[in-house]
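so the lab meeting is tmrw and i was supposed to have these ready like two days ago... anyway. pasting both below. for each one the top line is the aa sequence and the line under it is the structure tokens. i havent really looked at them closely yet so no promises
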Amino acid sequence: MAVTKILARKGRLDIGINYVLNGDKTEERVLTAHLNCDPGRECRQMLDTKRAVGKTDGVQYYHMIQSFKPGEITPELALEIAKEFTQEHLPGYETVIGVHVDREHIHAHILFNSVNADTGEKYHSNAQSYYSQIRGISDRLCREHGLSVIMQGESAKAVSYIEWLRQSRGQPTFHSMLEADLRTAIQDANDLGHFFLLMEHKGWEISHGNRLGFRLRGQERFMYPGRKNPLFTEDGIRSAIQGNLEDIEAGRRPAVIYRPPFQPYKKYPKYTGFMALYVHYLYVLGKIGQRQYPPRMTPQLRQEVMKSEWYREQFAFLRDNAIATQADMTAFQTRTEETLANLTKQRTILNVRKKKRRSLYAALADAEALAPAKALYEEGLSGMEAEFAKYMEAVTVLERCGIPKDRLMTEKAEIYEQLAETNRQIRAERKKLALCREIQSRLPQIEKEIEKIETKDEVIRDDDRRR
């Protein structure tokens, strides 16, 4: 499964290229590739192409990212898929590829020149080209390599204002409920007939006309999701179900997908302390944002309303960690600081291990990266003397260390993976501490704002009674 996005950039080419080819993220540039340009000369060649056709303004390059599901793919396969995508979708464009493995999910970065070196034309990207080309090619390549494909057919077509408004507020719409039930039924169905049975059990009436239509019992009109997303046509549903069965037979997905049991509605608990204060303030800000509260919208109050999402995040943090009093906050901070100190110590140990092996890891990377140059040198190609000498030096270092190459590569991968995971945990713990400090610093201001608003509200009510 690959999540794809493409970004148009007007900044400096060399900064983007250095980020994509960052050795710390790409195993010392082992997980990199170049198409239609030479290593070390990428930026110069892209700029020369722009100058040659007089198109040096505007978008300088495009940056595409393919993010893969954790544990589903190897870095080498991610690089291969990125290269196949580039060869198919970007012929003639100078491109650099880097597969980053510094996070828990492997992701490929594809940076290419905005001007085609063969035709001189500039690349243009829009919603239609994204879904029909970039997303389509990426999904097909993932499917060909045995990876899962996201069943999320977002449409480039417009939606009604009411539907857009409800979506922007996080409220469900009939279309969103239908699509959620369709995806669940497709995942659980054994064949098309079973799919229709599951949809009827979910409360949907089905119209088998020229287009497949659905409506909830009691609705007047049918909805035809296949108009916007081919996945929800009869042929698309049948193909998706068949793909599920093939994945089950190949062992790539379970035969039965676990669904959490239905949970009846539970009343909200009665909050106290910090959480009660946040609930009250969020209520007040929500009313003010809807213009249902007496106080006039001052610039300061407007800023508080705009920060309401941030306050919601802080409240969720307090609720999830059961922090209601200052004592709870102090205890949580102490535990977090201890965890952070242990993680920092663990990272130091890993960095020491990495430093001890630095020369071997560098030689390993050089041996892998310069193997093509060594082959060219042996074929008699001139200009490869320095690369060949560096390759032989790396091979000599590896032979003298007495450690098998496969074991050394496994050890290096484990250390890099452990470092990435430790850094991720450190960032999470630091974020918790930052949230604690932010909450404690904001509490007096929240209390003052609530007191000011309630006082003004009381004054307005008194004036109304006198009139």
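ok protien two:
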Amino acid sequence: MRSRRALIRVDAVVLMTAVVLVICGYLLDHAGTDEGVLTAQAANEILHGHPVYGQPWPGLFDTSRVGITKTMSGGADHTYGYPPLTALLAAPVHAVVHSTAAATLVTTVALLASSVLLWFLLPAPWRSAATAVCLGFGFLPHYAYAGYPAITALALLVPVVVRWPATGEGGRLGAGGVLRAACLGAACAAQQLAWFLAPFLLIGLYAVRRGELGPRRALTVTDRYAATAALTWAAANAFFAVEGFSAWLQGVLLPLDQKAILHGQGLMGISYYFTDGSSRLDYYSYGSQLLLLGLLTATLLFVRRLGPALTVLPWIAFYLATRSQDGYFLMMTPLWLAAAATVPATAFATAWQPRFPHVTGDRTKGVLAAALLAPALVCVAIAAASPPPLRMSLSPHFAKHHARVGITAIDVRAVNTTGTALTPHFASRTGQGASNWWTIASGPAVLAPHASADYRVEPASGFRALPGGHGPGTYLIAVTGTPMTITSAHIRAVPS
């Protein structure tokens, strides 16, 4: 283009085209997945004055279209396990649109609004990137169509992250700082992913302001910012906490302690795909927690170096977790872009860092940073290197159904090689996702330490079709919830 103004016009046309395409996509696909279905049901319960948390809704998952989060204890989660803000926003929409579309409409509108807002907030040369990342590649619209509450959190975090080091300049939050803090609190009231970003932002904000204002005034500004965010979060949650504190607390903490079945693309794949299992899956969770603490500590110690990457660091911890889904990374990529475009390294030139007399030079600092992250890697190594707790041999029973060859039952000889009693639950998998739980037709519920037993397990529908050709093989998995373990055994090829 001959001028910057003409280029901005072209970028605006591209943005509007992307918005129209996302709206068209929503009209074609707005049924939602499990998160959207649960959010719509929660909105419906709010409308009718019924409790939201602690209420199982198994009927929502009767159709094969709606997925479900299975737990390592052999069950599944049928309850609403997210903070309430997205459901609150969806409630008035549900009064008009009596379906899951009420939730998916809220998340889709939130994505579109945040995309347009980000476009205006970014410097002109970065605006085309905002359109591409938010709407152009398709993954964020897909999550919005599915009704993910994390999209609502993302929309609220966009104004928080853009030029965040300027928050509280001169010792005053001002209207802009208060708005950013309120958006952070609202994001935390929309979905738990925002919780992981909040401590990094507070550390970064305190360090930047302390370099400018000194410790006392910096602490005052940071406290006001955190208090505003906390009050906003509390306002969204207050009614539900008063209505049933225990159920509300269990609900909002559910994704953190539910012990969901392995899923995703992180290091847990070593035990899920490349070995026969692990008797110490809990160590992946320990590693994830230690990595998060290590990254927080590294941010505090080296904020001048790590500050520009502050919106990326929180999600790295999920790479070590047992639930390491791509959505934990991809849904927050607009925040990466916002920081890259508006938070230069020079913003941290005078930021405060703790001083250690014997920690000088890049080499020494690198050793210290490695020491902070080493415990997490040790935990992952323990989880990955641990052998499976069971030694299983399989004898499948094959049958044909509508010209497809499959399995009606498997006889399993299982030997517990550990010193802990195990309660195995069986499922099959081809690739990433696991099937519904298989029925244990015979065999003990609890397998004693160093004991062996014979099981007959049957697929939930009575027939499990096997894939043909040279695709991924089918595996029978046995999992336990306490301790978290998994054992995988390949189901031999169908006899010719």
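from a quick look at the 2nd one: The two ends are 65 Å apart (CA to CA). The longest strand covers residues 404-416. will dig more after coffe
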